[in-house]
Amino acid sequence: MTNPKYGSLQVLYSYPGGDDAVIELLTNIQATRQFHVGPEILGDVSVAVSAYLDDTWFIRVQTKISDVVIDQSDFSTYSDVGSDFAIRIFFFDQFMSVSLNDKWVYSYGFASIEYTEDVTASLKLDGASTTITDIRRVELSDGREAVFVDYESTTENAIQSIIQQRPVMVLPHVNRKLTFTYAAEKDDVDAVFVHRYKEKTSHPSGLSSDGLVYFEDVGVSIDLETARDVGFITKLYRLPELNTGATAAAATLQRQARQRRVMVETVQRLDPRIEVCDVLHVNLVTTSTERHIERSFIVEDVRIQMQDGDYSMSLTGRKKT
């Protein structure tokens, strides 16, 4: 069960503004238009962006419900030179906004809206061919355009202020960068030359089959796999600082706790392909008991050791379910 009134979606892309093309963002977000009269009929929302030249370049934004244009606005770029357009389309609760090159150009408020548990988004190109680049979907959409952090805050406290109570994993990236994600799974890698394998089953404190979610509203998040494997367990998730994505956050906490019931440790030959959040597939037969072990787990920690000139890699992760 989810609360459909609260949700978000943020998609960014760029394309040459001088091209005669219409780029439409298709979603499965259901909404009704403003000033709707009669029975409430929900339809899929889409947003079409195009450009045209009239002394200066204009950008045109059309909001559609079930392929019917319900609102349109044209915005002048105040330039007669075609340049790349960086588009940002942002849904937050009952509102949708569009930005061009980091400047707001359009907003629309729906009379009512419903977000599915898994919001889908795709880009459709009509008209002349063009090249769409820098396509991104932001996973942790937030309605705040800016976050003020105390100057004396530590890095950890500053990050917590930004992400609020979301169950975010902070992962190291190349060039000293950090990646923030709910539950990213990178590449699938087959484990080779495994020297030692260890598996431990426990019951994490966050484990629950039925979660009561307390945020700006109240919701329920049910994990059927936990109910089947462990039984009926209730837990209250207090997320009062979240006004969107709270039920998704609770479902993520439930899934991570369920996965951490089975923790896996391996020691194997050094494999530089493996990174945190890769899915490692183990398929081996033990030499002592001839037991066949076939397991997939999500890597949470990577350690490399060198002893007597011999490199080895220790991996720790949670079971993929």
Itemize the secondary structure elements and their pairings.
Elements: E1 8-16, E2 21-32, E3 43-54, E4 56-65, E5 68-76, E6 84-92, E7 95-100, E8 103-109, E9 112-114, E10 121-127, E11 133-138, H1 155-163, E12 169-172, E13 178-181, E14 188-190, E15 194-201, E16 210-214, E17 218-222, H2 224-229, E18 234-238, H3 246-259, E19 262-268, E20 279-285, E21 292-307, E22 310-319
Parallel strand pairs: 14-20, 16-18
Antiparallel strand pairs: 1-6, 1-11, 2-3, 2-9, 2-10, 3-4, 4-5, 6-7, 7-8, 12-13, 15-19, 16-17, 19-22, 20-21, 21-22
Low-confidence stretches: none
How many angstroms separate the termini?
20 Å
Mean pLDDT: 86
Can you tell me the overall shape? globular
CATH fold call of the largest domain: Jelly Rolls
Helix/strand class: mainly beta
Tally the helices: what do you get? 3
Number of strands: 22
Strand content: over 45%
Element pattern in H and E: EEEEEEEEEEEHEEEEEEHEHEEEE
CATH architecture of the largest domain: Sandwich
Main beta-sheet annotation: 6 strands, antiparallel
Helix content: under 10%
Name a few traits of the molecule.
mainly beta, Jelly Rolls, six-stranded antiparallel beta sheet, 3 helices, 22 strands, globular
Provide an overview of this structure.
- 9% of the residues lie in helices and 51% in strands.
- With 321 residues, the chain is mainly beta.
- It has 3 domains: 8-138, Jelly Rolls (Sandwich); 156-180 and 203-259, no CATH class; 188-201 and 262-319.
- Strands 2, 3, 4, 5, 9 and 10 form a 6-stranded antiparallel beta sheet that branches.
- It is globular and about 80 Å long.
